[in-house]
Amino acid sequence: MTIKLLLLTATILFTACSAPSQTTPTMTTHTSNPYYSRTDTTPITIANSEWKKVLPEEVYYIAREQGTERAFTGKYWDFEGLGTYYCAACGNQLFRSDSKFGSGCGWPSFFEPVRKTAVRYIDDNTHGMVRTEVRCGRCDGHLGHVFDDGPPPTGLRFCMNSIVLDFEPDSK
Ligand SMILES: [Zn+2]
């Protein structure tokens, strides 16, 4: 961790004068989260007490306490960039922008995950409704719910919370 930080600092120092800033506004840093990986798909089981130390408060609230962001307030509900969406808690690849559609419901909506095991499903009978909860297939974090009123080819609407998604634009 210390070496990584030193390397990062050195890189910033050496490139600050020559390179233009490559920062994308939607990118999030995960330097304090050792469980974050965009390449490791092995499921992980981490206690909530540990997640609480490494996740931003709002990510913890959605991912670990089954929270929901208010409709039309998330950063991706009407976002149309081309790229890939990852789990903001663990880095697991979840959705591609070509499965995203404008559902008008106020949350980012997709008709299919990037691969079958990217997410898992749990029956959710809370709040007097019968729904299917969608969780991250790697870290088991809450992402949102899936409904059967989506468009072809699947007819599904994965209604997700922007806060637990990280968007990475396609490189040109
Ligand atoms: Zn995850």
What can you see in these coordinates?
The protein is globular, with a radius of gyration of 17 Å. It has 172 residues and is an alpha+beta fold. Helix content is 17%, strand content 23%. It has one domain: Peptide methionine sulfoxide reductase (Metal Binding Protein, Guanine Nucleotide Exchange Factor, Chain A, Beta Complex). It has a 6-stranded antiparallel sheet. A 3-stranded antiparallel sheet has the order 2-1-9, with no helix packed on it. The protein has 3 helices and 9 strands. Zinc ion binds at residues 87, 89-90, 92, 136, 138-139, 141.
Briefly characterize the structure.
The protein is α+β, with helices and mostly antiparallel strands and 172 residues long.
Largest sheet: number of strands, sense, barrel closure? 6 strands, antiparallel
What Rg, in angstroms, do the CA atoms define?
Answer: 17 Å
- Average of per-residue pLDDT values: 88
- How much of the sequence lies in strands comes to 15-25%
Q: In what order do the strands lie side by side in the largest sheet?
A: 3-4-8-7-6-5
Structural class: alpha+beta
Question: What are the SSEs and their pairings?
Answer:
Elements: H1 2-15, H2 48-54, H3 57-65, E1 83-87, E2 93-96, E3 100-101, E4 109-110, E5 119-124, E6 131-136, E7 142-147, E8 157-160, E9 165-169
Antiparallel strand pairs: 1-2, 1-9, 3-4, 4-8, 5-6, 6-7, 7-8
What would the keywords be for this entry?
alpha+beta, 17% helix, three-stranded antiparallel β-sheet, 172 residues, six-stranded antiparallel β-sheet, binds zinc ion
